[in-house]
Amino acid sequence: MKKIFVMICAAAVIAVCPHFSAYAGEEPEISARAAVVISADTGEIIYGRNPDEKLPMASTTKIMTTLLCLESGNLYEEFVVDSDAIKVEGSSMGLLEGDIVTKYALCCGMLLPSGNDAANATAVKLAGSIENFADMMNEKAEELGLAHTHFVTPSGLEGVGHGSSAYDMAILASVALRNEIFREICSSQTIKLEFGNPPYTRWLKNTNKLLSMDNGVYGVKTGFTDEAGRCLVSACERDGKNLICVTLNDRNDWNDHLLMYDFAFEKSNRITLDIPDNISLPLAGAENSRIKVWAKEAETDITAYQADENDIEYKIISSPFVYAPVCAGDELAHISVRYKEREIKNIPLYAAENAQSAIPAEKQKNIIEKLKDFLFGEKHS
Questions:
Q1: Could you tell me the residue ranges of all domains in the chain?
Q2: What is the distance between the alpha carbons of residues 128 and 236, in angstroms, rounded to a whole number?
């Protein structure tokens, strides 16, 4: 009787909490045509199904469009949307002819309600046309090493040759999530904005239901077209470990992502890296020839699968010389933390000491005056 009671209780737990019981040490059974789970840091594949197969990826395309928009700067400068760009079918953030927006608002419109109007408006604002913006997208894809990706549209509406692989989309998401504004937007279930003509307050709602299904999920983007099927890119944190999951053409994507996370988090590791210290940089214009720098972080944690500390490389990114004067606390360089030539983190380095200029004050003044003459002509204020 006792055994029967235990079995009944176990069955009840499974029935009530299928997500809790999903992981049994075996690879998950999923519905996706292509899928992958990677470490958000090292990019290692923990689970994959056809991870390199190029497929249409629908509105997950907007990860790239949003990233380029955020990197372009001037996010809060107001402008009027292009009237022709916003005339597009499918999902919308509600843009109308003559609407006044900001790039930030367009990013929210792309990542939450998946606005095709926002994507097209972004493309025209940044590049002048959809075609020119597609070139920008493909240049960025090449820079990131996305070997199975080609962009034709900024929204993900089908174009000849438009597609990507699950692995490429996971790597793209890992890069985008390093942008704090991107991460803040895509992890929000709702966002309050002002846009229109004149701008007025409204709320945008995220299409990503996974945000409310698992407390650890913090993004990233949904997608759907008849050709692509259901597509989903997500990111999740558990116990200090961060993973990214992608499914393409998956009729059961919400549950499949949770299944894959259960499997992959058990397989992944959290490792602590000691940041190099005793670093100095070449110094010019001072009595000393070098200046000490330091990182505010003595160590940093990353998520890995098979990689360990010995696989990590550190590269100092700086100018050939630091020029005096320098004040302690000035940001002078960066440490690029790398795994297999891929940057994992970029850690700022700050001056650990002051460095006074060895050039006399009067001579410094003369040099500055000559520089002004050279730059602005003899008449200057």
A1: 31-267, 269-381
A2: 36
